[in-house]
Amino acid sequence: MLEIEAVGIVKRYGGLVANDGVDLSVDRGEIHGVMGENGAGKTTLMSILFGLQTPDAGEIRVHGAAVRFRSPIDAMAAGMGMVHQSFKLFGSLDVWENIVYGAEPRRGPFIDRRAARAQVAELAGRHRLAVDPDATVGELSVGERQRVEILKALYRDARVLILDEPTAVLTPPERDALFGVLRRLAAEGRTVLLVTHKLHEAAAITDRVTVLRDGRTVAVLRTAETSARDIIRAMTGRNVNLIVEKGPAQAGASNLTAVDLTVAGAAAKPVVDRVSLTVRAGEIVGIAGVAGNGQSELVEALVGLRPPDGGRVEICGVDVTAADVETHRAAGLAYVPEDRAAVGSALTASAADNLAMGFQRAAPLARGGLINPGAIAERAQALIRRYAIRISNERVAVGKLSGGNLQKIVVARELSHDAPVLIAEQPTRGLDIGATETIHARLVAERNNGRAVLLVSAELTEILALSDRVLVMFEGRILADLAQAEADEESVGLLMAGRTREAA
Amino acid sequence: MNGAPRWTAVALRLRPPPVAIAILFAALAGGALVLVSGQDPLQAYAEIVKGSLSRDSLPDTLNWATPLVGMTLAAALPLRGGMVNLGGDGQLVIGGLIGALLPLVLPGPGALVSIVALGAAALGAGLYAMLAAWGETRHGIPMLISSLLLSYPAVGVTSYLARFPFRDVATGLPQTPMIPEAARLYTLSGPLNAGSLLIVAIAAAAIFVDRRTVVGYELRMRGKNLRFAGYGGVRLDRQAMRTMFASGAIAGLVGAIVVLGSQFRFIDDALLSPSYTWSGLMAALLVGGEPAGAILSALFFSALQTGGFAMQRETSVPRVLTLVLQAIVILFLAMRQGVGRRAS
């Protein structure tokens, strides 16, 4: 019996098409996985199902009847419940207060506290979601908070429970407990939509999986009849396999070295767990991994944006472990950050000002503390020409550019540092094929010019196409260091899911 | 928005300067208020203009503008980098008290004494403002809070000092003794003195630093995107300390200029009652801390406030009307900027 369907969902944000005709069909009592790479449109689809966004086209059906969710209130009334990736709870209130909030049992104008507490305790007991109704939410562990979120949805009698990357913040025992709860909920006829990009989770718990890629539904697979390989293939898509011409690596001196680098996290487990790596001049080292396995934190620690909690970082022989960004850059670092809009540029500033950052203190852009606007403009014009950035002139604010052109601004600036070490984080995320090719060619050119390039990407095809060596990161650790010849989609894909034994 | 009425679309396409629109709306709203109270709005506005811009009243406007432009710059500098200095009052009185006390004890030629007094006032107030930046960078106290809270002890302690240890016993008032004539600032004409020139020089320097120096570029980038500046290698902590020092130093200088140039002694509350700090903060906020625009809006506010006194003298419309006008101008400008921001 069909519980919920999404038919031909389209959602655009400006020029970006997040969902481009997505279809999803989920049966009652099913645990249904929604998988896909970053930017595939999973989160957008879930937001539409929960009424946080309205689709530009397409239709949602509950039990076969079309519905329109103008807000989460409509969605909840139709039986939807959502457990967000970042919990939406009041930390200073008690568990029962959080759960009944917005649907409090009343006695006249007052909240019937005793009834509320009793209902919450009964609900927690019935679903075996162990949590003390009188505990303060702020003092609970992450796993317990998640249980509160689930109870909140069940208190409103949600028939469909959406969980967005629920295991990202859990320890393995907590994760197993969660899976137990989900199985029981499905057994009593509720429906679970599980957004994840971890293969082993999908294999362990789902009945079926819908795979999204580039905003479209590319496959609906029955888990029992599907291998991890099939899912990887559906998620990455063979046809986007870009071929990059490059000769064998002429690796030289170690320009970037990290030893036992550790970054503590909010939980007991460090987000970056004693990572050691070396990137030599003239090679591209790729870090593969599903987003959220510590790559961002590792890069922040390598570039000086986050002081590491242990270990050592050296750039061209200079110990820069606890130093600030300026010292890292002076030692020879250029860095293309993951988020080009929030970190890599100032959107309201002109292209000239954006391209000058990092060069503003030295000749020819500045002399004796005075900047030379003529030199800044000239430099910007030269880079705009060389990288074929589509912009009317260098005085235009970069916030007006497309994602690809904005990324070219960032890449142009960072590569013009001619620094011995280049760290490129998700350098082609959200870019079209043309812009991707340009940037890939630039990265290979940098490598051939003798720079050490560290490439961090959640796109496996990109890692495999560019890297001379591939490191696979999983839950904060480097699981493997593979030469290009040993690294293929299957072995790296399995390692990305933490399945070391099968990959070997 | 598809649902927006057509005339807004047309107005947006024509892009009339937002300041002009804001002033027009404020004048209309203020005029309606005057009309309701049974007065003639045109006459009231005529008196404001005459009372601020006529040949006789212009020096008064400029004299009023001296501290206001100064305090506007003190607010604009941190704002340019996305920081807020709410402690202008405290920095103002610290500078004022240092400016009033040093000439009483320092020997030497008067001109030198006044220069040393001005310098010491800037240094003292600058260091005090830097304390707020230090609190944020070292201990995570938001500067918005710490700068404001640090203002209260400064105001309280200077008030105590003027009322008790350093009180001029010859008068019955809470004020320090008169400073020697030689140490007072050189009078240019009427109420104007050398302090006004100093503020002009600082204003010119602020515009130059903003547009043509590395420090100015880095501060602008910080204001546009803090994380971008940090990622680009700008040392954010030092930058915050330096900027707050400069901001506080200007505020302290303003205090000393008023004391050495107009009041010749530190009078308790005299520096605070005109609320230069808050008018200056509003003038700076209007333009997001861009120095040239901030100076222009400060001059506009000075004219409005000076003209308000004249209007109150000549008509029966109270001076509070000018504050209403000022508030409406700001609300309209803030609304336009707010709307623009949400759309992006």
Topology overview:
The complex is a heterodimer of chains A (504) and B (344).
Chain A: E1 2-13, E2 16-27, E3 31-35, H1 42-49, E4 57-62, E5 65-67, H2 72-77, E6 80-83, H3 95-100, E7 106-107, E8 110-111, H4 113-126, H5 142-155, E9 160-164, H6 172-187, E10 191-195, H7 199-205, E11 208-213, E12 216-222, H8 228-236, E13 254-263, E14 272-280, E15 284-288, H9 295-303, E16 310-315, E17 318-319, H10 325-332, E18 333-336, H11 351-356, E19 366-367, E20 370-371, H12 373-386, H13 403-415, E21 421-425, H14 433-448, E22 452-456, H15 460-466, E23 469-474, E24 477-483, H16 489-496, H17 500-503
Parallel strand pairs in A: 3-10, 3-11, 6-9, 9-10, 15-22, 15-23, 18-21, 21-22
Antiparallel strand pairs in A: 1-2, 1-4, 4-5, 7-8, 11-12, 13-14, 13-16, 16-17, 19-20, 23-24
Helix pairs in contact in A: 13-14
Chain B: H1 6-14, H2 18-36, H3 41-53, H4 58-80, H5 88-105, H6 110-139, H7 143-163, E1 187-189, E2 192-193, H8 194-212, H9 214-224, H10 226-231, H11 236-263, H12 276-286, H13 291-314, H14 320-343
Antiparallel strand pairs in B: 1-2
Helix pairs in contact in B: 2-3, 2-14, 3-13, 4-8, 4-11, 4-12, 4-13, 5-6, 5-7, 5-11, 6-7, 6-11, 8-9, 8-11, 12-13, 13-14
